[in-house]
Specification:
This protein is of the alpha+beta class and 189 residues long. It has one domain. It has a nine-stranded antiparallel sheet with strand order 3-4-5-6-7-1-2-8-9, with helices on one face. Helix 1 crosses helix 3. The termini are far apart.
Length: 189
């Protein structure tokens, strides 16, 4: 069940990041149809500020998990570009609409594995530059999907804590007292 929850979280996170790169009311295929790069972000949309971010996420009512990540402008742009590329390759029916109260709603259907589809609906609220909340419901269908993992509610709160501490490079994550450096998995000082 945990692997299905993780797949749902990954699909939802990619959708949320890619949604930052679309104009309001635009579906993923619309970007390419207008001549813009389907994999590039719409830099007119707000992007997370550089610094140390804390993300707290709960999936399906399980205990919330927390992580801190050092983010720079290049990483934010790259995450949006990768999300857009993944979305273009694996998702259909991608929609984003601005909410009257701020933030936006998003919806998509994505292939997340062989014969496995994740349909996601939700909202992202906040200013996106220093704090935001993502509330999504993802339904996974396909062979061998346990009934208890078929639909998951995902809630993630992200907030900017301030500048990254000295020695914590962009991309480095801290979770459960463990520091992860994705650039070669080098331990941080």
């Amino acid at each position: 069940m945990r692997s299905f929850a993780i797949a749902a979280v990954l699909a939802t996170s990619a959708l949320a990041l890619a949604a930052c790169g679309q104009k309001d009311g635009e579906a993923s295929g619309d970007t390419a149809a207008k001549g813009a790069s389907a994999s590039g972000p719409n830099l007119g949309d707000p992007m997370p500020k550089a610094g140390l971010w804390e993300q707290t996420m709960s999936v399906g009512g399980m205990q919330a998990m927390s992580m801190k990540i050092c983010l720079d402008d290049a990483m934010a742009k790259e995450a949006i570009e990768k999300g857009n590329a993944s979305q273009a390759a694996k998702c259909t029916n991608v929609k984003r609409a601005k909410l009257p109260t701020g933030g936006f709603s998003i919806e998509s259907t994505c292939e997340v594995g062989e014969g496995v589809t994740a349909s996601t609906k939700g909202v992202i609220t906040g200013n996106m530059t220093s704090a935001y909340r993502m509330e999504m419901t993802t339904s996974v269908t396909g062979p061998n999907i346990p009934k208890e993992a078929a639909t998951q509610k995902i809630v993630m709160d992200s907030k900017l804590l301030g500048p990254c501490p000295p020695g914590m490079n962009p991309g480095v994550r801290e979770t459960g007292g463990m520091i992860i450096d994705p650039s070669g998995m080098k331990p941080q000082k």
